[in-house]
Predict the structure.
Amino acid sequence: MSFFTNNPTDRCPGRITGNPVNGLCERVCIQAQKVFDACIRQMQVDGINLPLENVTPANPTYPLTFVSARSTSTTGVITDLQVDRLPDRRRFARVQATVSVPVEVLYTDANGVAGTATSTMSFTQDIIMYVPEPSIVPFDVVAVVSVVAPDGVFVDGDTPSFTVSGCVTIIMKVIMTVELLVPSYGYAQIPQCQEYAQDVCSGFFDLPLYPNNT
């Protein structure tokens, strides 16, 4: 079994049934990233130029045919960050930054040989976010990113590139590493693992006819 496989004990993660106060035994200090504010921006972008770097294999035969491009990390690189507190809105600020997203580009060359390259997409952010009051421990602004580009056109030049259209998601967060005091039920009980048994229909007949909406 595991936390969520035939585990009858209530000393494990999961949905609370009954009185949630039952079993609370201590206050625990944990170190965690507290998220003070977050916002998401999703957009379709067109005409983004992707200069190709780290082309593999080297010396492909041009022209190249675009296959796809996708972000290689969920963490955006933030530069030119500027946080200006708003005098008429306490604990709010104008946050300006450039968020750069590393991407991997897939293509085929004129001989049909598949290849890869790296590049970077950059996006300007100019938003209003909630920021904590000044303190000894500083807050930080981070970005969670996802980019998928299904269409692109090859551009020949001194630095070969693709002009692409893509779908971009950027989540901006204001975070701080803090020590939080939280109520605790004590240490979790770690159950024995359930051995995998080969069964073609295992789990299939357990599926509900329709998904649960709760």
Remarks:
- The chain has no helices and eight strands.
- The longest strand covers residues 26-51.
- Residues 38-177 form one domain.
- The two ends are 25 Å apart (CA to CA).
